[in-house]
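Chapter summary example.
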Amino acid sequence: MNWISNYVRPKINSLFSRREMPENLWVKCDQCGTMLFHRELDASLQVCTNCGHHMPISPRERFAALFDGGVFVEVPVPKPLTDPLGFRDQKKYVDRLREARKSTGEEEAMLVAEGEIARLKVVAAAQDFSFMAGSMGMHVGNAIVAAAERALKLKAPLVVFAAAGGARMQEGILSLMQMPRSTVAVQMLKDAGLPYVVVLTHPTTGGVTASYAMLGDVQIAEPNALICFAGPRVIEQTIRETLPEGFQRAEYLLDHGMLDRVTPRKAMRAELATMLRMLTNQPPPVWGELAAPTEGEAAVEPTAAP
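The structure predicted for these 306 residues follows.
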């Protein structure tokens, strides 16, 4: 046995050799360029800790932060026909669906779930922009209807997190039909006197904005979210004028009466808890491990929201 070759040389190589670093440990902020450690970014719910830029977040991550204890149950959504038009552009529609499902791990662009927010039963639906730009096809229409029907059955509020590039062109007129379908589903909630709250995230555009995304009893948006029907570049080319700074962003729409609130993602759970309890004539939320006081018991001052 050669002691130098078998022990000393490998020991020296291990000290000076480069260690391979995983590529997903650091994420660069699109807004300010800061390199963010992935655990720090996960803890901040995909919000840049330097500039406050809100990055995309998946529906499951959003629900885990929204519902009590991160516990929620998926609401089943009827599956529509796959590629009803036999559509093909540069790729077949079925191939695009297959790629989107592989990259996101989700079946479609909207996820519906039920759970509790500050011990109040709530149904929520969230669009996944990473799934074909969150485009509204027949499945998204089915999801909105399924969410509304579940909310009606539970007599619970419905919260929708919108994020979409508009209707899905691969489904043609069938995708546009989801606009009146979703509008009817929202009207069912209003007729039943159940709250319908919409949270508009970046970006919310096209037919989604022209239907269920702007029909909420309360309209909330995340900071700097683009909310529009036609994008600013299209408008500038049409009217041939320079648009105001921040045009069609959440803060601009709030100043012009199109929104009720602009709320950071970290504060969204507390905001929705207070708002939904107010809309359902419930007492204010009690934060912490203690159960909410029952009728007849001594009133307890609620702990401030985290």
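To summarize the output: DSSP finds eleven helices and nine strands in the chain.
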